[in-house]
């Protein structure tokens, strides 16, 4: 039995659609203020994602934001969920991650994935066909850079001379890998320190893969992104923010996140999202029940994080749900999980 507490966190993409106009300057400032306030309320992590060339400004610079968040907070962990690693020079990823780790006294975790959006790969001169090898070699080179070994790296995708990569992180960041397809999940189990999951659908696949690679299931570390709206009256809340969720999910479909966009249909309404299970609607009691069941069944889950606000939704609107999460849901879940684990025979 693992007594390590699960962390509750927030997820940010910093999308700012013109349909709901506002200044990026104000948006960033308000979000940093929100994160500092959320930490004081008990939030323990913030997760940043990445894309490029998006009309709504989906953040292309998560390391910059991570450093800014670090300067506004004291204790919460900061991670990426996730960086599209094949688009980047892995040495630059190692350098940037090490710098953020140093700036935040070791509070940073590097989450990466292989990506899927063709225009990004074309613009950065990468091939979608090479995603697996770009990711795997990139992680190997990042680890070598952090180890301080001044040796050559020779691979099929990257060559790097015997040069020092400095400064070294004083606390080596975890390398977490996100995936949804079975081969990618298997790769995450083999090469990563932990698994970035989406909608809790692939936890068993990841744990089975750990065993195939000779690692115990108890060694698994899952960082679970939640697609759930928690509100006192979730249906009423959904009627207010559902269009923002529809914009978010259909945007991912159009980019190819869930399969070829030409053959993956868009959702036609916010209700269709709920009917398909793309979003869960929970009141506080339901959230406590669902999260308790998840954490009792899966002690490998080390973090659950929720969208701070949906694209175009105001920061204040998202903060109302954060307040409910921290004041009513988190204490009850922690109490219930602790009680359930005490009942389990050693």
Structure write-up:
This protein has 346 residues and is of the alpha/beta class. The chain has a single domain (7-343), classed as TIM Barrel. It is 46% helix and 15% strand. Strands 1-2-3-5-8-9-10-13 form an eight-stranded parallel β-barrel. A two-stranded antiparallel sheet has the order 6-7. The longest helix has 29 residues, at 315-343. The protein starts with 6 loop residues before the first strand and ends with a helix. 41% of the residues are buried.
Using brief descriptors, characterize the structure shown:
single chain, two-stranded antiparallel ribbon, TIM Barrel, globular, 346 residues, 13 strands, eight-stranded parallel barrel, alpha/beta
Specify the biggest β-sheet: 8 strands, parallel, barrel
Strand order of the largest sheet: 1-2-3-5-8-9-10-13
The overall average pLDDT, rounded, is: 96
Summed up, the helix count is 11
List the helices and strands and how they pair.
Layout: E1 7-12, H1 24-41, E2 45-48, H2 62-72, E3 77-80, E4 83-84, H3 90-103, E5 108-113, H4 118-123, H5 131-147, E6 153-154, E7 159-160, E8 175-178, H6 182-191, E9 194-198, H7 203-212, E10 222-226, E11 228-230, H8 234-255, H9 270-276, E12 280-282, H10 284-297, E13 301-307, H11 315-343
Parallel strand pairs: 1-2, 1-13, 2-3, 3-5, 4-5, 5-8, 8-9, 9-10, 10-13, 11-12
Antiparallel strand pairs: 6-7
């Amino acid at each position: 039995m693992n007594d390590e507490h699960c962390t509750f966190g927030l997820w940010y993409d910093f999308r700012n659609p013109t349909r709901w106009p506002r200044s990026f300057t104000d948006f960033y400032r308000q979000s940093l203020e929100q994160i500092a306030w959320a930490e004081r309320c008990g939030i323990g992590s913030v997760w940043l994602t990445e894309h490029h060339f998006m009309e709504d400004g989906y953040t292309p610079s998560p390391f910059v934001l991570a450093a800014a968040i670090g300067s506004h907070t004291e204790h919460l962990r900061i991670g990426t969920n996730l960086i599209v690693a094949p688009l980047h020079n892995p040495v630059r990823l190692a350098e940037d991650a090490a710098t953020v780790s140093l700036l935040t006294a070791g509070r940073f975790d590097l989450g990466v994935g292989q990506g899927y959006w063709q225009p990004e790969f074309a613009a950065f001169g990468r091939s979608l066909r090479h995603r697996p090898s770009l990711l795997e070699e990139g992680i190997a080179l990042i680890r070598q850079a952090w180890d301080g070994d001044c040796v050559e790296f020779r691979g099929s995708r990257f060559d790097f001379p015997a040069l020092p990569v400095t400064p070294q992180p004083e606390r080596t960041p975890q390398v977490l890998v996100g995936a949804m397809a079975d081969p990618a999940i298997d790769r995450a189990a083999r090469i990563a320190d932990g698994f970035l999951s989406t909608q809790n659908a692939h936890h068993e696949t990841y744990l089975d893969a750990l065993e195939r690679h000779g690692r115990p299931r108890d060694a698994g570390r899952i960082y679970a992104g939640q697609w759930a709206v928690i509100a006192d009256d979730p249906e009423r809340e959904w009627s207010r923010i559902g269009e923002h969720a529809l914009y978010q999910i259909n945007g991912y479909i159009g980019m190819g996140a869930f399969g070829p966009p030409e053959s993956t249909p868009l959702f036609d309404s916010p209700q269709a999202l709920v009917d398909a299970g793309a979003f869960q609607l929970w009141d506080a009691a339901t959230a406590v029940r669902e999260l308790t069941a998840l954490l009792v069944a899966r002690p490998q889950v080390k973090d659950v994080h929720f969208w701070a606000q949906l694209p175009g939704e105001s920061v204040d609107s998202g903060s109302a749900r954060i307040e409910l999460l921290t004041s009513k849901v988190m204490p009850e879940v922690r109490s219930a999980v602790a009680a359930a684990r005490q009942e389990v025979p050693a």
